[in-house]
Design brief:
Number of helices: 21
Structural class: mainly alpha
Order of helices and strands: HHHHHHHHHHHHHHHHHHHHH
């Protein structure tokens, strides 16, 4: 949705609200949203793109979805998926296509020695480090070599090595799935997460299965397949909760349970379900307190700090910019990866944009770009907030913002 589209939709919502004799506060109550969110929607600062949110607005106003957005899909028509654009993971996407190791199906293919298995494990650790740094171009090159190698190895290695190789295969596909989500390649993320699930089960590693579901849920969120995302996350929570009630529950299991509650918080925030969002944030906080430290089990970076980062992000999604900024004031994300720090600053910038604080939002974006430039240049939320800030600036766009818009291909 363009800036002009957002303004036009906001104006129609304002007119429909007034025709219905409703105040912004009344509409906010009917939507289970904040009054500030309604104000931002009507000003065109907060775009309304999800069909479920449009339908909720239409129901609250007593009109059809098409009266708000004439071009919107009806519930019987699926929402169109965005066409993928060229990005730093293009070579990895090609690698994911077709059979992962076709030559290994033929006789005579060599199998890896014990040292080559160790090399594969080192490579998996390396690509996760690149993912946490949002170094997508380098990650794409390394994973494009690693995935065929580990796929060939698992098919040709001695039986006593295959369990470990299946685990490495699962972790390699998990990093592929995580990276595809961050670069808005949700369909490829789904394929990678599905392969990770299969490999994790063959490895006999149920926690790796849960970690793969974590990646799959994020792929579904990015595809706007809320029901599937919620099912994936809820099934994991239901499996882990009884185990985590024990006082001696391993921290790795607690981390995964906490991470899945954060997934559910994100889902509920995107759907505008305020109470459920806060419930899952509080559950994650309680789990983080049990852990007592920031960890990186299964590369989720779950811990007290990451919970607060999600509290900021979900508050922004709900239109509660004030709450987001209040929480952000007490967050020190310096101990987390560059990717997490950059995403936190992106959410801070989104909150400032909702409050029309152009200078503060630009400062947060520039710091986020310094930490993880590839993420900020390609992430759909970063590009959206840059567009919003340019719109808010009118004819006097600050030079740093204009330069950032050029780097993100907005200007």
């Amino acid at each position: 949705m363009t800036e002009n589209d957002s303004r036009a939709v906001g104006q129609r919502i304002k007119e429909l609200r007034r025709s219905a004799g409703m105040s912004q506060a009344a509409l906010a109550t009917a939507m289970s949203r904040s009054e500030s969110w309604v104000s931002q929607v009507e000003r065109g600062v907060q775009p309304v793109e999800r069909l479920s949110v449009l339908q909720a607005l239409a129901d609250a106003l007593g009109v059809s979805v098409r009266e708000i957005r004439p071009e919107a899909s009806t519930p019987d028509e699926p929402e169109a998926e965005p066409v993928p654009s060229s990005n730093d993971l293009d070579s990895l996407r090609v690698t994911l296509t077709g059979h992962p190791a076709l030559s290994s199906l033929f006789a005579g293919a060599p199998h890896p020695s014990a040292s080559s298995v160790a090399d594969l494990r080192s490579c998996v650790e390396e690509v996760w480090e690149l993912a946490h740094a949002s170094s997508f171009a380098a990650l794409s090159d390394r994973l494009s070599e690693l995935l065929p190698a580990v796929e060939a190895a698992v098919r040709t290695a001695p039986a006593d090595e295959r369990q470990e190789l299946h685990e490495l295969r699962a972790r390699a596909y998990q990093v592929a799935a995580a990276s595809f989500v961050r670069q808005d390649e949700a369909d490829a993320a789904w394929v990678a997460a599905d392969r990770a699930l299969q490999a994790a089960e063959l490895a006999g590693k149920p926690l790796e299965v849960i970690a793969s579901l974590f990646r799959m849920a994020h792929a579904f969120i990015r595809q706007q397949r809320t029901e599937q995302a919620e099912h994936a996350a809820t099934s994991a929570v239901e499996a882990l909760t009884p185990r985590c009630e024990a006082n001696d529950c391993p921290p790795e299991e607690l981390s995964l349970l906490g991470a899945m509650n954060l997934v559910l918080a994100v889902i509920n925030a995107r759907e505008g379900r305020r109470t459920a969002t806060h419930q899952h944030i509080e559950r994650a906080r309680a789990i983080a307190r049990r852990l007592g430290e920031d960890r990186n089990d299964f590369d989720t970076e779950f811990g007290p700090t990451n919970v607060e980062l999600h509290a900021v992000a979900t508050a922004v999604d709900l239109g509660d910019a004030g709450l987001a900024l209040d929480v952000a004031e007490d967050v020190d994300a310096s101990g987390l990866s560059a990717e997490r720090q950059s995403r936190f600053l992106l959410d801070v910038a989104r909150a400032h944009a909702q409050r029309r604080h152009v200078g503060e939002a630009v400062a947060a974006l520039l710091e986020a770009e310094r930490l993880a430039p590839e993420q900020i240049h390609s992430h759909h939320l970063a590009r959206a907030v840059v567009r919003d800030l340019v719109q808010l600036s009118g004819s006097r766009v600050p030079k740093p913002l204009m330069e950032l818009a050029e780097r993100t291909a907005i200007a």
